[in-house]
C-alpha cells in the first residue's frame, strides 16, 4: 500500500525525522490560509499523487509551457495561483503513463535553502536477506539513471537485524554520502530513526529523494515516498486509515476485497493463474507469441469457488480484455474448484471474448469434465505453450 508524500512526512516526523513545515489542502480556497501558516517567504506547492517524476510532469489540460506538478511560489498570491491551476487537473509523469492522474490534493510546504541533494532509500535486500540502506550523492535524479550511468555512486549498506544500525554502519553511510560536521551528526541521528520507522511500520520501501544538506549544514527530508507490506497491514490500523482509494485502480480495489493478488496492466489478454511464478511465466509466454497481458492475477493456493468467480468477473469487467487465459496447475488448488468458479462466473456475466482453459494437477479430470459438460464455448489446451498460442490466435482472429 502506498501513501502520499505529506502522509509519509508526518509519519517520519513522528519518529523524529527533520521535515519542513507543511499543510495539505484539498481545495484552492485553502491555499491562502495554508501559506500564511508557514514561515515563508518561499513556498513549495506539490501535487500529491502516487507517482514519481511530479516536478518534470505536465498537466494535460494546460499548455506545453506550463509548469509541472511541483512549483515554487515566492508569495502567498503566487501559491494561491498555483493551487487554483493544479487542483483538479491531470498530471502526466513517466510513472503515470499517458492517462495521468488527477490531482485531488496538494501539499504546500515551507521552502529550503539547498546546498546539496542526496539519495537515500531503505528496502529489503533479498540477496543478503536483510534490510538495507541504498544511498548516493546523486540525489534529486532518477536512481535508475544513476545505476545505469554511474553505478559506482550507489552504495548499499545491509543492517544486521540483531545489532540494528551500528556505529560502523553510520560511518559507512556518512562516508558514502560525504557528510561532515553538523550534517554527519544529523545523519547519526536520522539513519537509526528511518530504520526504526521502516521496521516498526512494516514498510516495503522508504525512499528519500532528495535528502538535502541545507546551507546551514543541517539535514532535512525534502521528499518522502513510502509503501507498506500489504501482508502486515492487519496490525497497522493507523496506516490503513491513510489509504487513498482514488489513487488505485478500481479493479485492484475490488480484487483486494477477495484477497486476490491482482495488478492491472496495459495489454488485451486477461490472465487467471494460481501461483506468482506460474502467473509470471504465463505473462511472458503471451508476450513471446506477440500479445500483451491485461493483468497479473494470482488466485492463490486456497481459493474458493466464490473467489475464483470474483476473479473472473474482475477480468471480464476490463473493456481492454479481448481474450482470457485460465492457466491452473493444481497442487493445493484443485482444478475442479477453478472449473466451478469459471462456469459460475460465465453464467452470471456472460462470455463475449475467447476463453482458453488449461488445467493440470489435482482433480484435473473432474475439472475438465465440469468445463466440458457446462455447455460453454471454451477452447481447451494441453499445456502452457499450447494455451498461449491458442489464446493469441483467437484474439488475432477476433
TrEMBL record:
It catalyses: GTP + succinate + CoA = succinyl-CoA + GDP + phosphate; (S)-malate + ATP + CoA = (S)-malyl-CoA + ADP + phosphate; succinate + ATP + CoA = succinyl-CoA + ADP + phosphate. Mg(2+) binds at residues 209, 223. Its EC number is 6.2.1.5. Its cofactor is Mg(2+). GO terms for cellular component: cytosol; succinate-CoA ligase complex. It holds the Pfam family ATP-grasp_2. GO terms for biological process: succinyl-CoA metabolic process; tricarboxylic acid cycle. Substrate binds at residues 274, 331-333. The keyword Ligase applies. One of its GO terms (molecular function) is succinate-CoA ligase (GDP-forming) activity. ATP binds at residues 46, 53-55, 109, 112, 117. PANTHER family: SUCCINATE--COA LIGASE [GDP-FORMING] SUBUNIT BETA, MITOCHONDRIAL, SUCCINYL-COA SYNTHETASE BETA CHAIN. This is Succinate--CoA ligase [ADP-forming] subunit beta. It comes from Hoeflea phototrophica (strain DSM 17068 / NCIMB 14078 / DFL-43). The lineage of its organism: Bacteria, Pseudomonadati, Pseudomonadota, Alphaproteobacteria, Hyphomicrobiales. The gene is sucC.
Amino acid at each position: 500500500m502506498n501513501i502520499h508524500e505529506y502522509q509519509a512526512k508526518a509519519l517520519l516526523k513522528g519518529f523524529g525525522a527533520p521535515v519542513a513545515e507543511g499543510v495539505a489542502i484539498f481545495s484552492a480556497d485553502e491555499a491562502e490560509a495554508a501559506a500564511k501558516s508557514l514561515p515563508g517567504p518561499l513556498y513549495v506547492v506539490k501535487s500529491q499523487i502516487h507517482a514519481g517524476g511530479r516536478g518534470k510532469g505536465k498537466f494535460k489540460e494546460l499548455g506545453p509551457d506550463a509548469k509541472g506538478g511541483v512549483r515554487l511560489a515566492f508569495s502567498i498570491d503566487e501559491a494561491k495561483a498555483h493551487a487554483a491551476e493544479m487542483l483538479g487537473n491531470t498530471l502526466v509523469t513517466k510513472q503515470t503513463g499517458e492517462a495521468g492522474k488527477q490531482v485531488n490534493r496538494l501539499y504546500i510546504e515551507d521552502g529550503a535553502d539547498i546546498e546539496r541533494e542526496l539519495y537515500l532509500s531503505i528496502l529489503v535486500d533479498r540477496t543478503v536477506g536483510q534490510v538495507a540502506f541504498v544511498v548516493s550523492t546523486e540525489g534529486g535524479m532518477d536512481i535508475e539513471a544513476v545505476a545505469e550511468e554511474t553505478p559506482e555512486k550507489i552504495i548499499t549498506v545491509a543492517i544486521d537485524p540483531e545489532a540494528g544500525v551500528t556505529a560502523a554502519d553510520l560511518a559507512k553511510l556518512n562516508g558514502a554520502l560525504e557528510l561532515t560536521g553538523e550534517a554527519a551528526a544529523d545523519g547519526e541521528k536520522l539513519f537509526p530513526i528511518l530504520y526504526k520507522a521502516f521496521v516498526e511500520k512494516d514498510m516495503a520501501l522508504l525512499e528519500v529523494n532528495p535528502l538535502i544538506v541545507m546551507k546551514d549544514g543541517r539535514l532535512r527530508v525534502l521528499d518522502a515516498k513510502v509503501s507498506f507490506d500489504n501482508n502486515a497491514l492487519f496490525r497497522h490500523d493507523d496506516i490503513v486509515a491513510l489509504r487513498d482509494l482514488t489513487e488505485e485502480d478500481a479493479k485492484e480495489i475490488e480484487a483486494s476485497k477477495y484477497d486476490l493478488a491482482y495488478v492491472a496492466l496495459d495489454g488485451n489478454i486477461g490472465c487467471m493463474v494460481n501461483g506468482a511464478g506460474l502467473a509470471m511465466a504465463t505473462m511472458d509466454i503471451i508476450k513471446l507469441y506477440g500479445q500483451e497481458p491485461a493483468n497479473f492475477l494470482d488466485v492463490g493456493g486456497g481459493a474458493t469457488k466464490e473467489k475464483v468467480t470474483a476473479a473472473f468477473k474482475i477480468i471480464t469487467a476490463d473493456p481492454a480484455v479481448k481474450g482470457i487465459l485460465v492457466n491452473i496447475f493444481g497442487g493445493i488448488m484443485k482444478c475442479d474448484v477453478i472449473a466451478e468458479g469459471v462456469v459460475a462466473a460465465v453464467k452470471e456475466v456472460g462470455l463475449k471474448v475467447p476463453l482458453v482453459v488449461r488445467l493440470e494437477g489435482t482433480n484435473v479430470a473432474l475439472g475438465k469434465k465440469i468445463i466440458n459438460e457446462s455447455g460453454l464455448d471454451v477452447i481447451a489446451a494441453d499445456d502452457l505453450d499450447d494455451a498461449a498460442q491458442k489464446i493469441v490466435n483467437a484474439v488475432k482472429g477476433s
